[in-house]
Design goal:
- Helix content is about 20%, strand content about 35%.
- The chain has about 290 residues and is α+β, with helices and mostly antiparallel strands.
- The protein has one domain: Deoxyribonuclease I, Chain A (4-Layer Sandwich).
- It has an eight-stranded mixed β-sheet. A six-stranded mixed β-sheet has the order 5-7-4-3-16-15, with helices on one face.
- Helix 2 runs parallel beside helix 3.
Length: about 290
């Protein structure tokens, strides 16, 4: 699928791209009457697959287990951390089977390798980073993908952490990231910059859309530093009891959190939640 690159976020977002791709969260479209607008209901799944082949948590089994989870739970949005680029393609095929009446699409952003200036690589040589899966009604559904590298990084770690967002026709801005694991303070700075600078800048330029960020933030509720320190006060948040979080703007209701057993295939559970996007609440003006 052809991509279109844009540069209008360069100054605000540091290393950032705007690339056209196909991605639309599924779920019933809002229906309106004279008095009410029904919410759009989506199921979102976050997984850290530890599939680089280099980390101690690697088992070689997480991709197969992720496919089982997607088949069983049929999420509308899947965010993926610690994956190889081809993992997205493999899971997209499973996702397409689950949502056979729609067009499955994906996005990927590699982490950057500071010494080489190129992509961080999995042991198999593929780019390593974060990914996102969803589906659209037709291949021609309008969309935009925003991606980049956090401007703050732990200089002791050669891996520079990425972020990835998809905006579809101003319906939803869906994002994922994998924050620094070697420095809690760097992770907190990356979290705050993403939620308070990058995402508002995207909404200013691309138009407001309800926003959800799902990923392994390497921060805890009640930890030091506390993940709540970087979460805007009007946002909702749920977590897996550890490092994975789903954070949403005021116009998305989070509920029905479910922790999914990965059977030892990776060191993180799957985190599943329901997003209810309230179409009757107008978008807040960009800040």
């Amino acid at each position: 699928m052809a991509d279109r690159s844009h540069r209008f976020l360069r100054r605000a977002l540091a290393v950032c791209y705007l690339i056209a791709a196909a991605c639309l969260p599924a779920g019933p479209s809002p229906t309106s009457s004279a008095d009410t607008v029904e919410p759009t209901i989506l199921r979102a799944l976050q997984m850290n697959l530890c599939n680089s082949g280099r980390a101690s948590c690697y088992t070689g089994q997480s991709l197969a287990r992720a496919a089982e989870v997607i088949s069983a739970e049929a999420p509308d949005l899947v965010t993926l951390n610690e994956i190889c680029q081809d993992d997205v393609t493999a899971l997209e095929r499973v996702f397409a089977t689950v949502h056979s009446g729609r067009t499955a699409v994906s996005a990927f952003q590699a982490a950057r390798d500071r010494p080489s200036g190129g992509d961080t690589r999995c042991r198999n040589g593929q780019p390593y980073g974060v990914g996102l899966l969803t589906h659209v009604q037709t291949p021609d559904t309008p969309h935009a993908v925003y991606r980049g590298i956090h401007p703050t990084q732990d200089l002791a770690d050669p891996e520079e952490r990425p972020w990835l967002c998809v905006n579809v026709d101003s319906v939803l801005l869906a994002c994922t990231t994998h924050l620094a694991a070697t420095s809690y303070r760097v992770a907190l700075a990356q979290c705050g910059h993403l939620l308070n600078t990058i995402l508002p800048t995207i909404r200013r330029h691309g138009g407001y859309a309800p926003t959800v960020l799902s990923g392994d933030l390497n921060l805890r509720d009640g930890g030091y530093p506390d993940v709540r320190s970087c979460t805007p006060p009007d946002h909702q948040r749920i977590d897996d009891g550890a490092l994975q979080h789903i954070i949403a703007t005021f116009d998305i209701r989070l509920c029905c959190r479910k922790s999914l057993v990965m059977r030892g295939a990776t060191d993180h559970p799957g985190l599943l939640a329901t997003l209810s996007i309230d179409g009757s609440r107008p978008g807040r003006p960009p800040t």
